[in-house]
Structures are given as structure tokens and as C-alpha cells.
Write a sequence for this structure.
């Protein structure tokens, strides 16, 4: 399992981006993880699924509300990662109005999630293999902080905790 001090595993995530004005979209676009984290300070939060209650009501809105404060603490980008496809993540981004604040990145086949060792089996609830709820601060791809939630909890992966960590790392 991924831990503080580790380099983030490589791989590909996918992003669906809306284009303002003409209603056309770009994507899904492949995001090479290693290239995307190089030379940057990135706040990543992962969650079990788009449009799920805690994720939609607390997790994403918290990071959206703290986007400017995180930028002031030196965070270059905020990533939301979920085991959903890029079209679902794009629709969720539109619904949550995250454009320009949070990159909504899809891990449709859970390859990235498996590589981190932070999987969550929700097959008994009809959701299949998902990501645990967590957050981490990356600096040049190295994990500086990692906050993994206990099952069914939302206590340590929130934006306020990440902001405190970003201010000291």
C-alpha cells in the first residue's frame, strides 16, 4: 500500500473537459500521471464514487471552497480521483461546478487505485471495486502526507486537513 515518502505510481487517468460557449466537449483526455505531477505540488483526494452522498455533499464542495486557500499555500492543482468513467466524472464536474478549481480525474478500470493499494470492495453493495476515501499531498510526485479514512468515515481526508498540511509541507 502507498505510504508517505513513496513516489506516486505511474499510469493514466482520464479527464473530460467542457468547452465554454459552444457546448462541445473535449475528451476523454488521457492524463499521464508521472508527467502531470512533475514539478508540482498537488492535493489529491479520492473517494468511492461520483454522485454518492458524502462525496457530493461534503468532499468535493469542501475542496472547491478551499481552492483559493490551497493555491495560496502553494498547491498548484487539486485532483479528485474516483473509479468512474470520464463521462461520469465530467457530468459530476459540471453538476458540482468545479471548472478551474478541481480536476475531476477518472480511474475507470481502477488501475491507478489498484497500484496505490487503496482499493475498497463494495461488490456486496452493487458498486464493485472502488477507491477508499483518502487524501494526499504530493510534491513532485512524492507522497508528503496521506490521510486514509476508516470505513464509512469522513474525518481526515477533508479540505481543512489538507489545507493545514499544505501550509506546512
Amino acid at each position: 500500500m502507498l505510504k508517505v515518502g513513496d513516489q506516486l505510481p505511474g499510469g493514466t487517468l482520464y479527464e473530460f473537459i467542457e468547452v465554454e460557449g459552444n457546448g462541445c466537449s473535449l475528451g476523454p483526455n488521457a492524463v499521464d500521471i508521472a508527467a502531470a505531477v512533475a514539478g508540482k505540488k498537488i492535493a489529491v483526494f479520492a473517494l468511492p464514487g461520483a454522485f454518492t452522498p458524502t462525496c457530493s455533499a461534503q468532499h468535493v464542495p469542501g475542496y472547491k471552497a478551499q481552492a483559493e486557500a490551497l493555491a495560496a499555500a502553494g498547491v498548484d492543482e487539486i485532483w479528485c480521483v474516483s473509479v468512474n468513467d470520464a463521462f461520469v466524472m465530467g457530468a459530476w464536474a459540471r453538476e458540482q461546478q468545479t471548472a478551474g478549481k478541481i480536476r475531476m480525474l477518472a480511474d475507470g478500470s481502477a488501475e491507478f487505485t489498484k497500484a496505490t493499494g487503496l482499493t475498497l470492495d463494495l461488490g456486496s453493495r452493487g458498486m464493485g471495486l472502488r477507491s477508499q476515501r483518502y487524501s494526499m499531498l504530493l510534491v513532485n510526485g512524492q507522497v508528503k502526507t496521506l490521510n486514509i479514512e476508516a470505513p464509512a468515515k469522513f474525518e481526515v481526508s477533508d479540505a481543512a486537513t489538507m489545507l493545514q498540511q499544505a501550509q506546512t509541507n
About this structure: The chain has six helices and nine strands. Helices lie at 33-37, 53-65, 67-72, 86-96, 111-116, 159-168. The chain has a mean pLDDT of 93. The beta strands are 12-18, 25-32, 41-47, 77-82, 103-106, 119-122, 128-131, 134-139, 142-148.
